[in-house]
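From the pipeline queue, job 12 of 40. The input is one protein chain; the requested action is below.

Action: predict structure.
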Amino acid sequence: MEISCLTLSSPEEWPPARQQCSDFFRRYGNKRLTREGYQRLASLSYDELLQPGTSIMAATVRSDIGRIPVGICFAADYGEDACMVAVHPLYRNRHIGSSLIRSQLSKFGRLRCKVAADHSASLQMCFHAGLQAIALEQGPTGKPTLVMSGTLPLHPFHSSSASRADSVQEGELLCQNPY
């Protein structure tokens, strides 16, 4: 498995890439992702994708047709505007979602997201990634929602590779690239 940030060589590549990401979230988000998150991704321009605090991270595996995504994490404005994670069902329970969140956190230095209090798998993913619950709000559907937040320590000896090592499963190659 490899984790990398979506990088495009031209603005013309963005509309089809955005559609592929939206399709992945719709197919594997189990109808648990917010309408606001989908709308933010759908309206995201190429220039906005390049802004600090906004990116799409993908976990991919090698297949007979090339690298295919098994998990995607989208964050806009350090997660303030949107933060969504989806993992293909065959690859769940392997800490891929947590690795994607940690990769975003490593890239940005800080990250915030909101998770419905009754969605234990997503809460576990966030806690495993190092996020902490900092507030309780009413979500868009009226459910109690935890605001999760994380920051990285600012010292020169910090390395995110150690925190990603636990996401590698037996038999997988460790070839993760946070950028």
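Job complete. The beta strands are 2-5, 55-63, 66-76, 82-87, 110-116, 132-138, 144-151.
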